[in-house]
Amino acid sequence: MRYFLLLLFTTSLTGCYNSERNCSDFRTGTFEFEALVGTELTKTTFVRNDSIEIDYFRGKADTSAIRWINACEYIVTKKNPKNQAEKRAIHMKILATEGSTYTFEYNIVGETRKEQGTAVKVGK
Question: Which domains occur in the chain, in start order?
Answer without folding.
Answer: 20-123 (2.40.128)
